[in-house]
Amino acid sequence: MPALPNEPVSELSNKANDFLEYLEVEKGSSPLTIRNYRHYLNRFTEWLQKEGIRLELRDINPEVVRQYRVYLSRIIVGRPPARRASGSERTLSRKTQGYHVIALRSFLRWLIKNDFKVMSPDKIDLPKISDRQVKFLSGDQVDRLLNAPSLSTIQGKRDKAILEMLFSTGLRVSELVGLDQDKVDLNRREFGVVGKGGRARVVFLSQRATKWLEDYLRERSDKFKPLFIRHKGKIDPTTDHENVRLTARSIQRIIKKYAEKMKLPVDVTPHVLRHSFATDLLMAGADLRSVQEMLGHKNVSTTQIYTHVTHKHLREIHESFHGKGGSR
């Protein structure tokens, strides 16, 4: 594995690269995870160099980490268009700062596991993040979005199948675009996916989503393996399968187009449909553990971001029925 860029060979850089190889080989982390950890650790070592701090493991101490976190909180990352007129600048979000800290803690934990004398990662607190706000569509909004595509073209039938499938399964967009036709059992209405962290799970299709997927596939006369492909322009039947596969960005644009067409008040993304899938299940009475399994979450704590929805639902039931049975 190549060395962390822009830094001289040192004990710190050597061990950082050993850690990245550990993530790749032993942990089986995704290329994206490894890329992100490389970026976070590189930022740390570049800061150490800039501050004139030696790149030795023993030089990582609570005071150095404290100064580094101050630096992270002051990094200017540009201004979004809405703020450019006012001249206000945007710094790293607390969530992004947290990712940097998590990477450093993971690195220190790996060092301790391998008998290196370094500061305890437990001395580094994670930044407090405000409760995550979950965006999801109401039942009426879901219906409007799912009915937005025109069914007079193969693109429209494809888009209809995509929308129905996302809402039916709660798939991540990366999982959806990676599907091949021969991996989806339409008779059993199920298929397997390998999600984040290499976790495999079985995904189930609703009868409605299965119908629209079958309608779309019947329209196709090609021999390409991907479940969802591009249809614009003339496509050489001998082209590589991966060259016709829809990308995650393409799916995002498709959903955005239909959300704008239906004038939905929510900025709809593939993940909003995933949230809508989860909240729909919970509102109907599904238990949190089952929803966790269907979403492919490693920990149920991740799934608990949806509990505010069920709490609201329970409040409505309480207000509607409590005290109306004739007793107090």
From TrEMBL:
Annotated GO molecular function terms are: DNA binding
Q: What is its main location?
A: cytoplasm
Q: Which Pfam families does UniProt cross-reference here?
A: Phage_int_SAM_1, Phage_integrase
Biological process terms from the Gene Ontology for this record are: cell division; chromosome segregation; DNA integration; DNA recombination
Where does the protein end up?
Answer: Cytoplasm
Q: Which organism is it from?
A: Candidatus Woesebacteria bacterium RIFCSPLOWO2_01_FULL_39_10
Name assigned to this protein = Tyrosine recombinase XerC
Domain named Tyr recombinase is located at 132-319
Q: Write the record's keywords in alphabetical order, separated by commas.
A: Cell cycle, Cell division, Chromosome partition, Cytoplasm, DNA integration, DNA recombination, DNA-binding
Superkingdom, according to UniProt?
A: Bacteria
Q: Taking every annotated instance into account, which residue ranges of this chain make up the domain Core-binding (CB)?
A: 10-112
Q: Which PROSITE patterns match?
A: CB, TYR_RECOMBINASE
Q: Which GO terms describe its cellular component?
A: cytoplasm
The record's listing under InterPro entries reads: CB, DNA_brk_join_enz, Integrase-like_cat_sf, Integrase_catalytic, Integrase_recombinase_N, Integrase_SAM-like_N, Tyrosine_recombinase_XerCD
